[in-house]
Amino acid sequence: MAQTDFIEQLRALGYAVEELGEGKVAFPYSIPTGVFADHQIRLGFTVPGDFPITPPSGPHMSPRLLPLQSGGTHPSGGIHDSPFGPEWEYWSRPIHNWNLTRMNVKVVLAHVWRLFDTQ
Questions:
Q1: What does pTM read for this prediction?
Q2: Which domains does the chain have, with CATH numbers?
Q3: CA nearest 79: which of 91, 62, 94, 93?
């Protein structure tokens, strides 16, 4: 049910969602802001089984935008290989204070927007 809710919320916002199995979802995304503005990527998330209690972890994206760097912090650190596949990267960027938000997909996408805006 958690993944279904996440997907339904994305589709309600107009995104064409692809289910990749094992809780993974991806969709085409146009980066709205920052140095990558107007780049077309595939954005992905692993949806926790108890969403919306627990948010998805940081975003997965393809194609890769930044070099891998396991140490450090945003904007250049915490970039890892992704379990989504070799053409994907994972940005370790948890959503802080999730329990103080509306705990929905709009909050997740606002988090992604901030990540790109501060890149």
A1: 0.94
A2: 2-117 (3.10.110.10)
A3: 91
